[in-house]
Each structure stands twice: as C-alpha cells, then as structure tokens.
Specification:
globular; 434 Repressor (Amino-terminal Domain); 71% helix; 0% strand; mainly alpha
C-alpha cells in the first residue's frame, strides 16, 4: 500500500483503521493497547513505537510496512534505486538453473574478495552502489558454484545472498529480504556450514522482529543457539552466539520481558569480553561496543527512554561501522525525543545523516522521530524543514 506523502504514521493508522471499519476502541481491543494510546498516536501526541506499530498491524491483518509506508518509492525513484531492485529479484531466481553458459566466472578467491567488498560497502552504507553491483555478481557466483562446487564457493554465494538480504531490508523490501534468506539457507546447506546456517536463523529472527512476530522470532533465535553448538569452537562460533543473544535481547525488549533482556545482554557481554571487537567476523559487528548499543536500543524498546539516554553516554563508537553507528543515533534520537530532549534528538538525527546518509534516508524510525519532533517546534528552523524534506516528509 503506497504511502501518502503528507501522512504521518498516526494519520496512516487512523486512515487504515477507517478502511477496516474499526473505532479507536475496537482497534485498541484487538491490539491489546489502550484507547487513549491509539488516540494520542493518531494525533501525534505519543510515539508510534515499533511495538505499537506491530500491535496495530497484527490487529488489522496488515504488515508493519503498511503502517510505516515502506518502501519509500518516491525517494527511491529520486535516487534512481527503484530500478535496481528487479535485477536482484532476477538474480535470486536463477539459483537452481545450473551454470549459465554465457558467463565465464572468475576464480573463487576473486569472487570471495568481491563478495567481501560488497559486505564492507553495506557497512559503509553505500547502498546504491551495492544494489547496482550485486545482481551480476550473484549470477557469476551461481555459475561458478555449479561449475566448480566446493564449500568455499557455496560460502561465497551465501555471502552474496546475505548482502541481498541486507540491502532489501534497508530499502524496505521485506518480501525480497525473505527470499534472500531462503537462498542463504540453500547455499549454507550445500556448504555444510552450521555457522552460516545459524547466521541465517539470526537474520530470520530479526525479520520476524520487524514484522512484530515476536514468538516466532524467539523460537528462531532459540533454534539458532542450539544449532551453533554444533560448530567448531572458535571466534566465528563466539561471534554468532553473541549476536544471537543480542537479537534475543531486542526481541525480549519488544515483548516487554525485562528479565530475559538482562539475561541475554549479560551472556552477550561475557562473550564480547572474551572476543573483543570482532567487527569483520561474518560482518556482524560484534564486540563490547555493540553490546552497549544493543543495551541502549533495548531500553528504548521498553520505553525506558531516560535510561537509554544515560546508557548511551560514553559509548565508544570508534570501532563500529557507519551502518551500526547510524542506527544507534536513530535509536538514541527516539529516546531523547521522548525523554524531553527534542533539541538533542534532532542533533542525533543529524549525526545519523552525517555518518550513514543513505541508510538514514530510508529509515522508518528516523521518519517517525521527525514526525514526533514536529509537534515540539513552534517555529520550525530552516535546517529542520530541509531535513524533513530530504527524508520525504
């Protein structure tokens, strides 16, 4: 369902509620939230938190993307990214067709280096360039895997499928992200790699988090934690195990299970203290700094906004990639906004744009925070209006 450009999230909820012939009380009962909260969100007086969006989406039988308005087609068209999506779909569709006779692939080491380079570019949030280069590389690696099958070659192809998932998620194409995860599972099985298989479970759990299906997400993470025990002991197993605990913490926070949040963060911290920064191991950015940022995010998810702001103080971001730093500033901006610090929130949003512009432009969390900020500015500063226009408000 395309977004109406002038709509804020609360107005979109009201419009969709009307389409489904629901009163505010009726939607509140279905979503298990208060009528007062529905009213305040629709008026822009309370945050449309991810948990709220998930609850009302489930209540109306919609996807969370229907509520947030993703993907942001007009901005993607303006950036000439929308036309790059179909080639990725086509590249994902040829997985079972064997070698393409028109392609003469490079050697595995060269393809692996190219796949790693795309992973690095995603972390730098150079999304448009990755989206443009990815389809041809998937075609080439698919042919190479059929012509010279090996565990390493299947791992390279799995890495490219993971990149397809990353860019699809950042651009708001949830169906394409799901397809990419299925392909990742297919390639990981051929590589006989439990670490890759577990990474897929983690990413799938995050997909269910975004879809507000917390029970399923929790099950997937639990399966992942059991599966990773089959992997060989070492850094990669530690990193994936730690990242699974971080994902579980956010799932638990979204579901308001505070004790589970604390337990998973504690486990992740113990592992991070052992591994130290491991930012390029499977490109998941695991380490002590990432545990701190997930603690901030978890507190914000539980509406403990002042605590989240406090937890962010002194966080060392120096070892983290721009993608993770930009996401942190978006989380922090929401916490600052709802702890009564709108000026700080806008400053954090500007930092997010500075460090990760393409990612920030397509972030629903950034848009929702900007929507919330509009009610706190009696006289909107010119820079604020320019920022709002940049993200498509």
């Amino acid at each position: 369902m395309p977004a109406i450009p002038s709509e804020h999230t609360g107005a979109r909820v009201a419009r969709l509620r009307g389409i489904h012939h629901l009163t505010q009380t009726g939607l509140a009962q279905r979503a298990n939230v208060s009528t007062s909260l529905i009213s305040k969100v629709e008026q822009g007086k309370a945050p449309a938190s991810p948990a709220f969006i998930g609850a009302v989406a489930r209540a109306m039988g919609l996807s969370t993307a229907d509520i947030t308005g993703q993907p942001y087609i007009e901005e993607l068209r303006a950036d000439q990214i929308d036309r790059l999506i179909q080639p990725i779909r086509e590249a994902l569709d040829v997985y079972d067709l064997g070698a393409d006779p028109e392609i003469r692939p490079r050697q595995q080491l060269a393809l692996d280096a190219a796949a790693d380079q795309l992973c690095a570019m995603v972390r730098e949030t150079n999304i448009k360039a990755v989206t443009a280069e990815l389809p041809a590389l998937i075609h080439e690696a698919t042919t190479a895997a059929y012509l010279s099958p090996s565990d390493d070659m299947w791992r390279t192809l799995a890495s490219l499928y993971r990149t397809a998932y990353d860019v699809s998620t950042k651009l708001g194409y949830t169906d394409l992200a799901t397809l990419a995860l299925d392909r990742l599972d297919w390639a990981a099985a051929r590589a006989s790699d439990p670490v890759l298989g577990t990474l897929r479970q983690y990413l799938r759990g995050l997909a269910y988090l975004r879809a507000a299906q917390y029970t399923t997400g929790k099950r997937l993470v639990g399966i992942g934690l059991r599966t990773i025990e089959q992997a060989e002991a070492g850094l990669l197993r530690d990193v994936v195990t730690g990242q699974l605990h971080l994902g579980a913490a956010i799932l638990a926070a979204r579901d308001q299970r505070e004790d589970d949040v604390a337990g998973h963060l504690s486990e992740a911290q113990l592992i991070a203290d052992r591994t130290g920064p491991a930012e390029q191991a499977l490109w998941v950015s695991f380490g002590p700094a990432n545990v701190t940022l997930h603690r901030v995010a978890a507190l914000a998810e539980m509406d403990k906004y002042a605590d989240a702001v406090q937890a962010a103080r002194g966080a060392d971001l120096s070892t983290l990639p721009p993608s993770r730093v930009g996401h942190h500033y978006a989380d922090l901006a929401r916490a600052e906004m709802w702890s009564g610090k709108p000026e700080d929130a806008y400053a954090s949003l500007r930092r997010a744009r500075s460090v990760a512009p393409q990612q920030t432009r397509y972030s629903p969390l950034v848009r929702q925070t900007m929507e919330d900020l509009t009610s706190h500015y009696r006289s909107v500063p010119e820079s604020f209006a320019n920022y709002a226009h940049w993200i498509g408000m």
